[in-house]
Design goal:
It is built from six helices and 14 strands. It is an alpha+beta fold. The protein has one domain: HIT-like (HIT family, subunit A, 2-Layer Sandwich), CATH 3.30.428. A nine-stranded antiparallel sheet has the order 3-5-7-6-11-12-10-9-8, with helices on both faces. Strands 2-1-4 form a three-stranded antiparallel sheet, with no helix packed on it. Strands 13-14 form a two-stranded antiparallel sheet. Helix 1 packs across helix 4. The chain is globular and about 55 Å long.
Amino acid sequence: MSELRWNPVLEEWVVTATHRQDRTYKPPDGFCPLCPTRNGDFPTEVPAADYEIVVFENKYPSFRRDPCVPAVLGTELQPIAPSQGVCEVVLYTDDHHATFADLSVDRIANLVDVWADRYEELGALSYVRYVLIFENKGDCVGVTLHHPHGQIYAFPFIPPRVAKELESSSKYAAAKGRCMFCDLLAEELSDGRRVVAENADFAAFIPFSARYPYEVHVMPKQHRESIAQLSRPERRGLARILSTVTRGYDSLFDFSFPYMMIAHQAPTDGGQYGHYHLHFEFYPPHRTAAKMKYLAGCESGGGTFINDTLPEETAEELRAAIGRACARTGARSGADDVAGINGTAEAAGSGGGPGGCGA
């Protein structure tokens, strides 16, 4: 059973999806449903001996193409609606023990193409208003299958956090005649203290008002509303900087760093969103190697985040971690994506365009 229930107090939809209680939960080795199906092995979701990238519809979706009739009747104050939409799983690799940070830049560039394809195809459905691309990594963020994968939710409404960004950026554009995100990026690059990585097409930084200690936003330098608008060089630039950031995360405390990665891009409801700007947001739950950033009373009950760190200091730590990660991979024979304290890409050697840890 899956349905939408309206919260009139917060003016937002809540999705109930009771069948998800039965989804696969941390299966033992040899029984991962996302691995290839090899001769004589446990049959999985992928009937092939190997693969590169696979997309299929989630067996335990929050939204359905043909949703069930809601379990109860709504009221005028508290309406209810069918949860019509699509939920997909995106498998990054057939290597069960890999993570996003282990992927080659070529593989990530192919993944960016897949994201663009799914954004356009799902967004073209008449009942889809927003396509949310994301990855949950790590037990502490609720991952139930450890095989490297992401997800895509095609929403029948615009999620509230994105809706707030759309509202604020629309107001800014009306008042200033400019893109708020372009101005934010220009300010971050000019200041430089919070920039952690940069290449010709993208920059990554810990926001001035970061909610998580090591929260990172990745933004294209040119104004783009969605992944689908990125040029071929920009798609590779995105792949490089995502590789750089995730490798840096793993180097920060020398373990595989958990996070949530979310792509924020324009809705697909036919509206005009020239004021909006594509960006990726990373929310890592660790505030130290051994301590977590929990969403406690103030965050969950009051809606106000308390950050126990200074973004300028955590950015310096993450820059250093990215430098270590790049040095270990031997990727610094040319210019790379590591940002210096002044926010510009450091060139370690000569020749070549901007690269990255995984280039």
